[in-house]
Automatic annotation (TrEMBL):
GO BP: regulatory ncRNA-mediated gene silencing
Annotated protein name in UniProt: Argonaute family member
GO molecular function: RNA binding; RNA endonuclease activity
UniProt keyword Calcium present: no
Record's keyword annotation contains Secreted: no
Biased amino acid composition, Gly residues: 9-18, 42-68
Pfam families: ArgoL1 (PF08699), ArgoL2 (PF16488), ArgoMid (PF16487), ArgoN (PF16486), PAZ (PF02170), Piwi (PF02171)
Keywords from the named record: RNA-mediated gene silencing
SUPFAM superfamilies in UniProt: PAZ domain, Ribonuclease H-like
Cellular component GO terms, alphabetical: cytoplasm; nucleus
All residue ranges annotated as the Piwi domain in the record: 621-928
């Protein structure tokens, strides 16, 4: 680390040491506010020191010379003030515009240049809607950079007859709440009326409100009386099913879209939906459906412990691509409940469950959460019946009564003995409450979980490990299994529904030319490294900028002996120093205690250090040793990050006690995480952003990543968490600050994006003394159906942030907005079987054949797949005011995938999107900790009502989430 030059002290109590801005990032925005800025040399010859809020006379002497102390700005300076912002002269002369509609632009601060309504400058979370919707840009060109290779993709070409499909609305009275019952009604209707009323047509049904036919029915609207016979425990019921003509779906519109002709900008999704439903109808009869997936134990099953088992299955979806319509077919797997008696299931899922003693409050809450909304079958009578659970009774079975039709009050235990000669064995247990118009009870001991029910919750660590082992398949095996699936399950020669709608599907995968992009070189302190096969070894390298750790300690929550802890501390310090981190011995002696005492131990550590240190010199790092992953991890992180202002690093005992070689590798990985958590920089691209794309990234550029984390399935009360990160170190892009907010549950749009963008852009200016002129935004977690909403809401929120930063309207960085998708089922298989690990090579990119027919998107497999089959990441550009060419954006994304701070491998997702995911996960722990603290009865309600605890400046100004 270069020596630090101290600047002159500023006047007043706010004065601080000057700090020359450099391309380094120290993440100490809060110190500037409190007058504790430190002087540091920089590469900028006009480097200016920064002082505190109330000081101002200080003058910093950096490597490039001293500059006046400067208080942080509440708003950006005027665009023309080059003394403050250091922007080249031509920048301020370039007209600034904002896109507010497809193909139209308007200037800030004046009359609109087009018909669009002015964009509001409000700073609230509400986002105005422009008069015209934004649409994604056309593909600028096809990429040419890289070595050409041949791969196969699990897309199967389709042919569809040139004939319309007819769409009908379906309504059922009385309404049914289950797609299974709705489908049973439709099957019964077709069986009963196909020859007489449906002209022998074979309709397909989505289980909700849409029915499709290959030819027009002989009526516009008709009511059908359908009786659903007693089956699987359902009592016979009569329904009125109304079928009403809705639309004629013309394949010509799809042809125009696929060929890029005419004014059809978006795929005719109604036509795609009809094809999807038609191809799902056949497997629907034989397998358990879940969205576009179909499962069956005949494909493979594995017990996962805890009363769950994994089932294999397959996924299918019709997609429009550059080569035409294709059927995307892939393998899939999911966790299901075992078809066990309820008591057996609870014995497996609750470690201390004893039916003879009833349920504790904790087990009762867990049991209710596990069983809620599940279907059960009764075992105490000859006629099978199936019911859905709505909850558990508040009282034990022995205390429950109900009123008969004659008005007599009867005990549940007496009723079962009198009616079924069944003596209740476990009267201390609560009954299952059943869904229905009136409260109905069933003792747990007479109920069995129905087969084929998918588990919607989160698997524990062991279950997840077993699931991954069960589903992990090398590419060659996965490819062969998909081919077998297409030959057997998808035998379209036998598929009556495909024949009815004139659908043909090829039996062979798509073969195409991909490109392998060049591998970027990386810069360390004294050398450069060019990765090989997606990875590299930094054994002889030192971090580009090592952090300085003077004030740290360790808290031991394990039973490790003191000598083992001391040995680990010594080895950690040695390893950190070896890679360039200046790490002193612990400033206070390590402490030990039980994990449940984490609050007391950590607060004591803070107090002990404070009693021996100067004000404002808090602990920089606390290393915590834990036996294993534990629920308290989230509580510990919340305490440290939102109450104590501590950056922490948790280490598991099994890793601390590894043998020498394994321990050395673990310590190297640990050093990478610690260095960025204290403000260091591990490495950088040898070629910075200005040289990669000079015409665009030669201007000050900020790169954002964003993600939204939603509650688990069946949790309808907890909030969603939105997380945004942004780079702070142009012309590099390796250091990111983070912001997070809670918002309404299951809302995908980022509700507080405006506020977070404003905050992070101000931080960028504080760290670089530059105002961004280019903004790249990588948005994770958005499905195709949400593209329009995200584009028109979130882009406008970003644009309003510019107005907040500079209300005169002269400031409008050019935006490139890219959606990052990993949750898709496109897989690459190398045609060359000699490829290492049987996966495609890192840097494999595809922007032809399987991509969008007209929009700017590409698939990139930036990482090396070590296990299973690599999943490429799909990048889809929704807005590009910067005018990237395909090669420019693809090379930039691939290169940045080598800059992830936590490992020496290229990662599969561009780091800002990856970091946003980590921040969302960490913030979810903060919210869950708050909810858990409210007690079991009100935990979920507390989570819904609480605001996300604010991460303190001492933490949020670093990459604490790594």
């Amino acid at each position: 680390m270069p020596p630090r030059r101290e600047g002159g002290r500023g006047g007043g109590r706010g004065g601080g040491d000057g700090r020359a801005p450099s391309q380094e990032w120290r993440g100490q925005e809060e110190e500037f506010r409190q007058g504790r800025g430190r002087g540091r040399g920089g590469r900028n010859p006009d480097g200016r020191g920064q002082g505190g809020r109330e000081g101002g006379g200080g003058r910093g002497a950096g490597a490039g010379g001293g500059g006046p102390s400067r208080a942080p700005l509440e708003a950006f300076p005027p665009l023309g003030d080059r003394r403050q912002q250091q922007i080249p002269p031509e920048t301020s002369q370039r007209p600034r515009t904002i896109v507010s509609a497809a193909g139209s632009q308007r200037g800030y601060g004046g009359t609109p240049a087009g018909p669009s309504a002015p964009v509001s400058s409000s700073s609230t979370g509400d986002v105005p809607t422009s008069s015209k919707a934004l649409v994604p840009p056309k593909r600028p060109d096809r990429g040419t950079v890289g070595q050409k290779v041949t791969i196969r993709v699990n897309h199967f070409k389709m042919k569809v007859k040139d004939a319309p499909i007819f769409h009908y609305d379906v309504s059922i009275h009385p309404a049914v709440g289950s797609k299974g019952i709705a489908r049973a009604l439709e099957r019964q209707l077709v069986s009963q009326y196909r020859a007489s009323e449906l002209n022998n047509l074979l309709p397909v049904y989505d289980g909700s409100k849409s029915l499709y036919t290959a030819r027009r029915l002989p009526f516009e609207q008709k009511d059908f009386k359908v009786t659903l016979p007693e089956e699987e425990g359902r009592r016979a019921r009569e329904f009125k099913v109304t079928i009403k003509f809705a639309a004629e779906l013309d394949p010509y519109q799809m042809d125009l879209f696929l060929e890029g002709r005419g004014a059809v900008l978006q795929a005719p999704y109604e036509f795609l939906q009809a094809l999807d439903v038609a191809l799902r109808e056949w497997p629907m009869k034989s397998y358990v459906p879940s969205g576009r997936n179909f499962f069956d134990p005949s494909f493979g099953r594995l017990a996962l412990e805890g009363g769950f088992e994994a089932w294999k299955g397959f996924y299918q979806s019709v997609r429009p691509t550059m080569q035409g319509l294709v059927l995307n077919v892939d393998l899939s797997a999911a966790a299901f409940y075992e078809a066990l008696p309820v008591l057996e299931f609870l014995k497996k899922s609750l470690p201390y469950f004893d039916p003879s003693r009833g349920l504790s409050d904790g087990d009762r809450a867990k049991a209710k959460n596990l069983l809620n909304r599940l279907k059960v079958e009764v075992t105490h009578r000859n006629i099978p019946r199936r019911y859905r659970i709505s909850g558990l009774s508040l009282r034990p079975t022995k205390a429950l009564t109900f009123t008969t039709d004659s008005g007599q009050e009867v005990k549940v235990v007496d009723y079962f003995w009198t009616t079924y000669k069944h003596k209740i064995q476990y009267p201390e247990l609560p009954c299952l409450e059943l869904q229905g118009r009136k409260t109905t009870y069933l003792p747990m001991e007479v109920c069995k979980l129905a087969a084929g029910q998918k588990y919607q919750g989160k698997l524990n660590e062991r279950q997840t490990t077993n699931m991954l082992r069960f589903t992990c398949q090398i590419p060659a095996v996965r490819e062969q299994n998909i081919k077998t699936l297409m030959s057997n399950v998808h035998d379209f020669q036998q598929n009556d529904y495909a024949a009815e709608f004139g659908i043909q599907v090829a039996k062979s995968m798509t073969s195409l030319h991909a490109r392998v992009l060049p591998t970027p070189s990386l810069r360390y302190s004294s050398n450069q490294i060019t990765p090989s096969d997606g990875g590299w070894n930094m054994m002889r390298s030192r971090f580009l900028r090592g952090g300085v750790i003077r004030r740290w300690t360790l808290v031991n929550f394990t039973r490790l002996a003191r000598e083992d802890v001391d040995a680990f501390i010594s080895e950690l310090i040695q390893r950190c120093v070896a890679v360039g981190v200046q790490m002193d011995p612990p400033v206070i002696p390590p402490s030990s205690g039980r994990l449940e005492q984490y609050d007391t131990l950590l607060r004591n550590a803070v107090r002990n250090h404070a009693s021996k240190s100067k004000p404002g010199e808090g602990l920089q790092l606390v290393v915590c040793l834990m036996d294993a992953k534990h629920q308290i991890y989230g509580d510990l992180k919340k305490l440290c990050e939102t109450e104590l202002g501590l950056v922490t690093q948790v280490c598991l005992k099994k890793n601390v006690m590894k043998e020498y070689n394994s321990l050395s590798q673990y310590l190297a990985n640990l050093a990478m995480k610690i260095n960025v958590k204290v403000g260091g920089q591990n490495m950088d691209l040898a070629q910075d952003l200005r040289l990669m794309v000079p015409s665009i990234l030669g201007k000050p550029t900020i790169i954002f990543g964003a993600d939204v984390s939603h509650p688990m399935a069946r949790d309808d009360t907890s909030p969603s968490i939105s997380a945004v990160v942004a780079s702070m170190d142009w012309p590099s892009a390796v250091k990111y600050l983070a912001r997070a907010r809670s918002q309404r549950g299951r809302v995908e749009m980022i509700e507080h994006l405006h506020d977070m963008v404003v905050d992070l852009m101000r931080a960028f200016f504080t760290h670089t003394r530059l105002k961004p002129e280019r903004l790249l935004f990588f948005r994770d977690g958005v499905s195709e159906g949400q593209f329009s909403d995200v584009l028109n809401n979130e882009v406008q929120a970003i644009q309003r942030a510019f107005l907040t930063l500079q209300p005169n309207g002269d400031y409008c960085p050019q935006i490139t907005f890219v959606v990052v998708q990993k949750r898709h089922h496109t897989r690459f298989f190398p045609a060359d079987n000699n490829v290492v690990s049987n996966n495609v090579r890192p840097g494999t990119v595809v922007d032809t054949e399987i991509t969008h027919p007209r929009e700017f998107d590409f698939y990139l497999c930036s990482h090396r797949g070590l296990q299973g089959t690599s999943r490429p990441t799909h990048y889809h550009v929704l807005l590009d005011q910067n005018g990237f060419r395909a090669d420019q954006l693809q090379t930039l994304v691939n290169s940045l995938c080598y800059t992830y701070a936590r490992c020496t491998k290229a990662v599969s997702v561009i780091p800002p999107a990856y970091y946003a995911h980590l921040v969302a996960y960490r913030s979810r722990l903060h919210v869950d900790s708050v909810a858990a603290g409210a007690g079991s009865s009100s935990a979920r309600a507390a989570a819904a009502e609480c605001r996300l605890p604010e991460v303190l400046p001492e933490v949020r100004n670093y990459m604490y989430y790594c």
